[in-house]
Amino acid sequence: MRKLPILPAMLLAALACAGARAQSDKPAVMRLDPALDALVSPDAKLERVKGGFGFTEGIVWVERGRYLLFSDIPANVIYKLTPKGDASIYMHRSGYTKPDIWRVGFEQTNGKDASDPLFEKFYMIGSNGPALDREGRLVIATWAGRSIPRAST
Question: Do 48 and 35 contact (CB within 8 A), yes or no?
Answer without folding.
Answer: no
